[in-house]
Design goal:
Shape of chain A: globular
Radius of gyration of chain B: 13 Å
Structural class of chain B: mainly beta
Distance between the termini of chain A: 36 Å
Number of strands of chain A: 11
Mean pLDDT of chain A: 96
Oligomer: heterodimer
Number of strands of chain B: 10
Mean pLDDT of chain B: 95
Shape of chain B: globular
Distance between the termini of chain B: 40 Å
Helix content of chain B: under 10%
Chain lengths: ~110, ~120
């Protein structure tokens, strides 16, 4: 199975400051169809997960443009340009190229 | 508006069975791979099972920990997804979410508790 390693585990941030989360996969996430099925999710306290980014860098509908995704192959990054109070929660990376699809362990974003 | 509404969770004894259902609306259900994802209390997310749009037997996938005990199925005419869970164990206790296979849409979840 592909192992997704996220860092950091916890990320205290100051409102208005940038934040960055990394995710590394144990093998390439490039599918045989040429796509890289790598996604980022946000889970606010008490809510279901919500997809923010699909296929590495594509923002989902309604996601603020302060969120951006980048990376390739096995190394990926989620950046928040200016953290707002509503961004508090746990962020998960997920690979959808192989089976079983696997999630990273999560990064808890909190306000300092 | 896209909606996924799960039902069927509850308290069950170890070794028991439950059938989860997910009613979909607001998108063309029959064209999407669908999945069940679970989250144990205070833990991260775990993919449980996937099923192809046409529901063919050959295109169902399970995580090792549930293979042989759980069965995913769908009824495209009813825009519904199911998860039959047999031989339940304490470690199956979790919130179970219905989702499209790449996570575009999620339900609110249904809680399964396995305990004597």
């Amino acid at each position: 199975d592909v192992v997704m390693t996220q860092s950091p585990l916890s990320l205290p941030v100051t409102l208005g400051q940038p934040a960055s989360i990394s995710c590394r996969s144990s093998q390439s996430l490039v599918h045989s169809d040429g796509n890289t099925y790598f996604n980022w999710f946000q889970q606010r306290p008490g809510q279901s997960p919500r997809r923010l980014i699909h296929r590495v860098s594509n923002r989902d509908s309604g996601v603020p443009d302060r969120f951006s995704g980048s990376g390739s192959g096995t190394d990926f990054t989620l950046k928040i340009s200016r953290v707002e109070a509503e961004d508090v929660g746990v962020y998960y990376c997920m690979e959808g190229t192989h089976w079983p699809q696997t999630f990273g362990g999560g990064t808890k974003v909190e306000i300092k | 508006e896209v909606q996924l509404v799960e039902s069927g969770g509850g308290l069950v004894q170890p070794g028991g069975s439950l059938r989860l259902s997910c009613a979909a609306s607001g998108f063309t259900f029959s064209t999407y791979w669908m999945s069940w994802v679970r989250q144990a209390p205070g833990k991260g997310l775990e993919w449980v099972a996937n099923i192809k749009p046409d529901g063919s037997t050959s295109e169902k996938y399970y995580v090792d920990s549930v293979r042989g005990r759980f069965a995913i199925s769908r009824d495209n005419a009813k825009s519904s997804l199911y998860l039959q869970m047999n031989y339940l164990r304490a470690e199956d206790t979790a919130m179970y979410y219905c989702t499209t296979s790449q996570g575009a849409y999620w339900g609110q979840g249904t809680l399964v508790t396995v305990s004597s």
